[in-house]
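Narrative progress, year one. The postdoctoral researcher (J.K.) led the effort to move from monomer predictions toward full complexes, under supervision of the PI. The following entry was the first complex the group processed end to end, covering 444 residues in total.
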Amino acid sequence: MTISDMESEAHELFVAYLEKELSSSERETFERKLNEDSKFEAEFLEFKNIYIILENRLSPERATVLETIKQANSNFNYKPSKVTTEKKVIKFKPWKYGIAASILLAIGIFIFNNFSKPTYSDFAARETISLTVRSDVDETTKNAEVAFNSADYSKALIYFNELLKVEPNNLQLQYYKSVALVELSEYDEADSLLKKISESNSVYASKAKWIKALSYLKQKRYKEAKKVANSITSSDPEYQKAQKLLSKL
Amino acid sequence: METKKIHSDQRYVEALLANDSTLINEIYEKFAPKVIAYVCKNSGDETAARDIIQETLITIYDQAKTKGLKLTCPFDAYFFLICKRKWLNTLKKSGSKEVTIEEERLSIKDDADENAEKTQQFEEQQNLYMSVLSKMGETCKRIITLGFSAMSMQEVAEQLGVTYAYARKKKSLCISKLTQLIKESSLYRKLQNDY
């Protein structure tokens, strides 16, 4: 047996111990060895150190916290503390009133014409995503991000699919994939994905409902859009948007 | 470290651990402006500063979660130091000649320095592990990522079309391989010595 074989055999035992897969007698033997053999203990602690860091880094719990941080980032409005911009006073010449009035009239007509039914583009905020926390992540993740943020959804979709092959249960990826699908009017595929996400117990559940509502809106299926928007409750972050949509439907 | 008193700002660390959005919003309100102002003053912009802040917060979470981070200084000083050093590193990496950097004050190492340094070392360590993982073969990468996801090993086995026993064995082997690769890297040894 080579050294690395022996090492991996030891590691197998470490994993089984850390994942509580050992029987109670095996566990006792293992813990006794930890107490008696300091070299064994040191090896185990070094392994455990790496193991728990990886475990945490890949955990769904961490992804949820990262999502909360991102949310806080977008909630936060930065105002430089010392604003010393002088207020410019522009004199309003009488002839300008005429221009102002016609602009107002134009806006009025525009609003009136658009008042009848809300449209998808009224509500679909082109969100920009950031899948990368570190700058040195892999190429595909970066490509997905760039394509999505520049509204090249068919390209983004290809990258999302690639990424989902590696992490099929990554809800964040699933969610953005569904947004891309709606943008591309691939409603059936989007629907089944959104259904799955909205049934999950994550921050993406209510986001998925909102996208579902937008998807119906885009298809001009107003009744269904209304129904989905109504299912977004006041505790969801999307509640206000949903209420606004409902008020126009 | 054990003898030092834990600072009351530990509550911000706990907030990250508890995924407490109210307090996390408060962290931004209270501590982000200083970081953004600093980055903007030193050849950066608001977006770059926001990236740095986000990275720092999740790293603090990671360290707290895996190492039980205990703050012995105000969050303000600690957080600002990490962000500032991160930004200086970014500038160094980009190698831009035309950067202006506000002079660094020379001072005796205090608690904030110590806390910030630990967090940075932790981050380096974690980044190393992830980069080794990203260089592994597809099968190992997949089984490790799935193995630590919300899925049970039974589900992972189904997903991969293998038996439960095989999936477990393979996960174990892959983690073993990964730790061996990590331990072989020179950066790992350097970080071990620094600790």
